[in-house]
Amino acid sequence: MISRAIFENNVGGTIFLGILAILAVMVPVLHLAVPEDSFFHVSTSTVVVFGKYLSFALLALSLDLIWGYCGILSLGHGAFFALGGYAMGMYLKLQTSGGAPPDFMVFLNWKDLPWYWWGFDHLSFALLMVLFIPGILAFVFGYFAFRSRVTGVYLSIITQLLTYALWLSFFRNDMGFGGNNGLTDFSTIAGYSVQAPETRAALFSTTAIALMAGYLIAKAVVESKLGKVLVAIRDAESRTRFIGYRVEAYKTFVFTLAAMMAGVAGALYVPQVGIINPGEFHPANSIEMVIWVGAGGRGTLTGAALGAVLINYFKTIFTTGFLAPYWLFALGGIFILVTVFLPKGIVGTLASVDWRRWIPAKRAPADEAQLKPEPAE
Amino acid sequence: MDQVSGNKITRALLYLSGVSVSFEGFRAINNLSLTIDHGEMRAIIGPNGAGKTTMMDIITGKTRPDEGDVLYNDGNVDLTQLDETSIANLGIGRKFQKPTVFEQHTVEDNLLLSLKADRGVWPNLFWRTTEAHRERIDEILEITKLTAHRSRMAGALSHGQKQWLEIGMLLGQDPKLLLVDEPVAGMTDAETAQTADLLRDIAKDHSVVVVEHDMDFVRALDVKVTVLHEGSVLAEGRLDQVTSDERVIEVYLGR
């Protein structure tokens, strides 16, 4: 039943999954099997950069789940991404040091690993923490915030404070996370060199598959009756309460789920870019994510992913040329243009076009009345 | 206390006694006492600012009274201790003055969300709509004359249709007590008459409290009327009785 809901009448989603499946197979083949001088060869830098984009796409998807479908505008969603990234970084760091305290602890004269590093030398434990640490933080934060009925701009402000507090904390050397430098100099992951082309290709494919899985989970959630409750909360929160739904429980659920997805995105990001530092907690990052989702199309899932890839692609082009100092102006410009000309975002605008109008004569005129009208804003 | 039996304070479905609430010095509800019996339908009228909507806010847990008792279901439940969600789940449904439906959901989904069922997170994540649910939705669509509009977005409905959809959502909840705030505001005369029929029909197996300004509508309902004024009960009785009451004429009908 869920698979039907996903593929039937969901052209965008099917295309999205199809492209990702092709990328997951073809990029490793073109990177590894095609000789470097061939036109079809995909270079290492391309694999790394697009792998990074796909992890951002998963992050944007998770943000769309809470913002697009439940109206929770988190301006601190990057915190969960960074925490997932740190959990993976801790594993990678211990691979480099062979389980001993890593270099930055040696500089601090720490003889033993602090207790919160225990277990991170095992990949399976680290992967669990990638889910649990963002999940538990989101659950506790969400439980108190939503129970106290903090909504709208006030919620945005406290999420911003959450990530700001983590940003300041992770800068401190005595936190035991490498301070300003963060965690870097990774050697192996699951026994394979992180620099090896095969590993890079595998990480790329894993990210593409994770994004597909994330999309399927998010789609299943929003298509379920719970998803309808989320939209009901977004549009008329107090009405939803008066019908008997415990709004705070639904918000906490979706907030926690989204945080866990963001954690996975962070964990896939770190081995590909080779570093995680406190900068990832910076409030500006979390705001940028909101722009990805808004540009791509809030409440569309695929649009969020597309927005993340497109804007980051522009960012890469912009910040590698002479235009680099003007990137923030360009980003602001994109945000203004999208808000003015495409308020539903790219995918939201495409979805609101009645494409059937262009397919002649299949539809009886009587159906005209059944067409979905433009939802009132 | 008028309805003492055994050690119970009341046998009524809803019992308000000595309820007061102030907002920044303004007494919106002032020593209000009101009793709704099981299966009763009651109309509440009163000029603007008489405290009608505030009274509903108190019953449904949106506003907490400063003092007084609000008891439900033979006096077994103290509503002042509960929040909106818990009160809704005890079987008190509410229709708002301004029609509030889920505009970005279809008419059908609006009803699905309101259907009496487990409100928990997990049961709704793994929800299956059964044949019984579909039949109930079809029934309500029929009653509210919205069958032809089932796949339309609720936001695209006319004002009157939204009012009916909201009443339909109340039916879906199947509450013991329905609180209906100005159901015919902004309706045409024909719609008003149909709404009166609909509410009388609902009142056959539910208790209903209707707040309304429209005197023709209240007359059409043909039930006991309570007149509120400055946050307390001014008069109670049949419509012709209260409308001939000197004090009511003075404050409400305006002389």
TrEMBL record, chain A:
Keywords: Cell membrane, Membrane, Transmembrane, Transmembrane helix. Its main location: membrane. The keyword rRNA-binding does not apply. This is Urea transport system permease protein. It holds the Pfam family BPD_transp_2. It is a multi-pass membrane protein. It is found in: Cell membrane. NCBIfam families: urea_trans_UrtC. The lineage of its organism: Bacteria, Pseudomonadati, Pseudomonadota, Alphaproteobacteria, Hyphomicrobiales. The chain crosses the membrane at residues 12-33, 39-59, 66-88, 123-146, 153-171, 201-218, 249-270, 290-314, 326-347. The keyword Cell membrane applies. InterPro entries: ABC_transp_permease, ABC_transptr_urea_perm_UrtC, LivM-like.
UniProtKB/TrEMBL annotation, chain B:
Coiled coil: none annotated. Residues 14-255 form the ABC transporter domain. GO terms for cellular component: plasma membrane. Keywords: ATP-binding, Nucleotide-binding, Transport. SMART domains: AAA. GO terms for molecular function: ATP binding; ATP hydrolysis activity. SUPFAM superfamilies: P-loop containing nucleoside triphosphate hydrolases. Transmembrane segments: none annotated. This is Urea ABC transporter, ATP-binding protein UrtD. Signal peptide: none annotated. CDD domains: ABC_Mj1267_LivG_branched (cd03219). It comes from Candidatus Filomicrobium marinum.
